[in-house]
From TrEMBL:
Keywords from the UniProt entry: Oxidoreductase
The organism of origin for this protein: Tumebacillus avium
Gene3D superfamilies, alphabetized: NAD(P)-binding Rossmann-like Domain
InterPro entries named in the record: NAD(P)-bd_dom_sf (IPR036291), Sc_DH/Rdtase_CS (IPR020904), SDR (IPR050259), SDR_fam (IPR002347)
NCBIfam families, per database record: EF_P_mod_YmfI, PRK07231.1, PRK12826.1-2
Lineage: Bacteria, Bacillati, Bacillota, Bacilli, Bacillales
GO biological process, one term: monocarboxylic acid metabolic process
SUPFAM superfamilies per the UniProt record, alphabetical: NAD(P)-binding Rossmann-fold domains
Family matches, as PANTHER family: 3-OXOACYL-(ACYL-CARRIER-PROTEIN) REDUCTASE (PTHR42879), 3-OXOACYL-[ACYL-CARRIER-PROTEIN] REDUCTASE FABG (PTHR42879:SF2)
Protein name: 3-oxoacyl-ACP reductase
Statement: the UniProt record of this protein carries the keyword Oxidoreductase: yes
A Gene Ontology molecular function term of the record: oxidoreductase activity
Domain of life per record: Bacteria
């Protein structure tokens, strides 16, 4: 590989897994990693057509990409996702735990089933994926694990107690795991976005969106690409001295 190619695609030859990559932030992350040269496993649960669209977008960068269905709250399916990566691409060097769900409502109106569903999707899934991928990274003495949290995992959000709790758990999970696997050459970091224009904001009115933009110091709502650029940086080999960190791309809303 010549110098120019490496500068343009510093992840050339790396194998990456992005969970929940069929749309929104996950899709943007998958494409950003592919643009940097990584082969990308596009995980999805239900949206097969959307996942295949992400795969096609990744392949435009002359990398390998494959859609793999898995419900990541299931240990066997999480293990299957990692195994599918090994079989088709080789050992994974990058895991981006992006898949998750959100729900608004008072805690008093939150059922036990709804609470468990939130924890399974947002906290159990990253645990199972990390547990399955770590033996491969430890063997190679190299890896990048990047967990997606939320600004509400830092500050807490009214009427989003279950969601905030699950995303706060991801932050603690990140910090603890970083200490555990750092000696093996593996970094673990957390990205906690603020308001980003995805399906999670679809329930808001135009007036609500305008108000959020006005309250944000940079004067706008974030884009999936704003988050993807940060994830790409944390996935680079040159980010090896950054671990256990929580970085929040939120336009200055929380400092």
């Amino acid at each position: 590989m010549n110098t120019n190619t490496f500068e343009q695609q510093p992840l050339r030859g790396a194998n990456a897994i992005v969970t929940g990559a069929s749309r929104g932030i996950g899709r943007a992350i998958a494409i950003a990693l592919a643009a940097a040269g990584a082969n990308v496993i596009v995980n999805y649960n239900r949206s097969v057509q959307a996942a295949e669209e992400t795969v096609e977008a990744c392949r435009r960068y002359d990398v390998k990409s494959l859609a793999v269905r898995a419900d990541l709250s299931d240990p066997d399916q999480a293990a299957h996702l990692i195994e599918a990566t090994c079989v088709n691409f080789g050992s994974p060097q990058i895991l981006v735990n992006n898949a998750g769900i959100s729900r608004t409502g008072l805690l008093l109106d939150t059922t036990v089933d709804e609470w468990d569903e939130m924890m399974n999707a947002n906290l159990r899934g990253p645990f199972l994926c990390a547990k399955a991928v770590l033996p491969h990274m430890v063997q190679k003495q190299y890896g990048r694990i990047i967990n997606l949290s939320s600004i509400w995992g830092i500050t807490g959000g009214s009427c989003e107690v279950a969601y905030s709790a699950s995303k706060g758990g991801i932050i603690s999970f990140t910090k603890a795991l970083a200490k555990e696997v750092g000696p093996s050459g593996i970094t673990v970091n957390c990205v906690a976005p603020g308001a980003v224009m995805t399906d999670m904001l679809a329930h808001l009115s135009a007036e609500d969106l305008e108000r959020i933009a006005e309250e944000t110091p940079v004067g706008r709502i974030g884009t999936p690409q704003d988050v993807a650029g940060l994830v790409r940086f944390l996935a680079l080999p040159s980010s090896s001295f950054i671990t256990g960190q929580v970085v929040s791309p939120n336009g200055g809303l929380v400092t």
